[in-house]
Amino acid sequence: MATESFDGIFTQDVFKKLFPEDRADRFFDALFGDAEEGAYDISLEFKGQSQNKLEFEFHLKQRPGKCLACNLTYGLPQVFSRHPILNVNGLVQEIDKLLNGRAKCTDWKLSSTREISRKLHVIPLIVSLEAGESA
């Protein structure tokens, strides 16, 4: 499995289905009662793989006229891990289906928020794998 490449699976079209653009608005609507209160858009990106892990990142991109202050994003891994609209557990189950038996997702974790710039923060999502039936 270490030599197996999953790059071709995780395309922009796949991510639009896995994590639709409107999910951030639904998240902020649930959190604040108004999607317009949200300071950032959320997208999911594939960063690569290593040994028995797939590495993704949630990208938090500042919305025009809003402030992506670090105090708004550093506690988010805990919020993201439990929030039913973001549904990280369901997202990992969908990733598992996309692997189509080539590997199996066994666990996941969200790492600490990293500030890439004033307008972009990322939350790493690490998915643990084991060899699949067709690996």
Terminus-to-terminus distance: 6 Å
The coarse silhouette is elongated
Give a quick account of the main beta sheet: strands, pairing sense, barrel closure. Answer: 5 strands, antiparallel
Classify the oligomer: single chain
How do the helices and strands follow one another from N- to C-terminus?
A: HHEEHHHEEE
Number of strands: 5
Instruction: Compute the number of helices.
Output: 5
Radius of gyration: 15 Å
Contiguous low-pLDDT stretches (5 residues minimum) are none
Number of domains: 1
Name the structural class.
alpha+beta
- Summed over residues and divided by their number, the pLDDT gives a mean of 88
Strand content: 25-35%
**Helical fraction:** 25-40%
Task: Summarize it.
It contains five helices and five strands; from the N terminus they run H-H-E-E-H-H-H-E-E-E.
Any overview of this molecule?
This protein is an alpha+beta fold and 135 residues long. It has one domain. It contains 5 helices and 5 strands, in the order ααββαααβββ. It has helices spanning 12-18, 23-32, 70-73, 76-82, 88-99; strands spanning 40-50, 53-62, 103-110, 114-117, 120-131. Strands 1, 2, 3, 4 and 5 form a 5-stranded antiparallel beta sheet that branches. A hairpin with a 2-residue loop joins strand 1 and strand 2. The chain is elongated. It starts with 11 loop residues before the first helix and ends with a strand.
